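dumping this here before i forget
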Amino acid sequence: MPRGPRRDAPGVVQHIMLRGIERRPIFHDPVDREAFATRLERLVPALGFRCFAWAFLPNHVHFALQTGPTPVARLMARLGTGYARYFNTRHKRVGHLFQNRYRSRTVDGERDLQGLVLYIHQNPVRAGLVSDVGELEHFTWCGHGACAGTQPARAFESPEDTLLLFGDRMAEARRNLALRMNTPTELRDVPPILSPRPVEDRKRPWTSGEAQPDLDDLIDEVCEKHGVSRLELGRGRRAQHIATARAELAQRATRDLGLPSRAVARALGVSDSTVARALSRHRGSNDSTSRWPRAE
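structure:
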């Protein structure tokens, strides 16, 4: 079977998401957002990237980026390191600002990219930052305004290229984009790494055809349920309540999400043997649908 294009190959489009540690805010005010945008304005053109869509949310950011000759990892390393240094200095804090590394997904063709543009640009509406798409056209921290012609384009975005996805002529493309933006995004258009899933459904095993929750959401759910922090969960400590939470996470991540134990270990920052011990807590149970240890 022939291999697909390398993720960092020139011309490949990726959905990039960068989130604050423990979902904490990465922007406190417009000054922070402008500092982040300024870094993008310097790095994206200089490194040969093209940005089809973007949105800044209080605790995370989304981009649809087409790679140039430079690997996306280099762009994100320079962006994240520089901004974290600025943020910590300005707000007199220390420690990590972002949750692990960025997350990414390769976009599969033009239709997928159309859906991704809609998904990213609708984020401020879904988050309640603006009331509707009409207000979104004048929202500073999202790429939709430049595409609609109501906001000046930033140096890092390419609204003309984005509009070509929706029509060959500018006026036609903007009409089509407005129509699509006012239509709720269908589930098939939502990128898999961020597909929504009701909280009450997350404890059920995932099956084909459902929107799969991501590991970060599962970690947050388990931490909240057992009253532990991500830091405690990842320190490898063997306190009873932490071991119980880690065991539930390991079981649900491997069983429901189909992840290998090594991936769970990397996400928590612990050894493979720590996750193996957590999984062993469930061995020998006769109940295949409710095998979680009780919280103590």
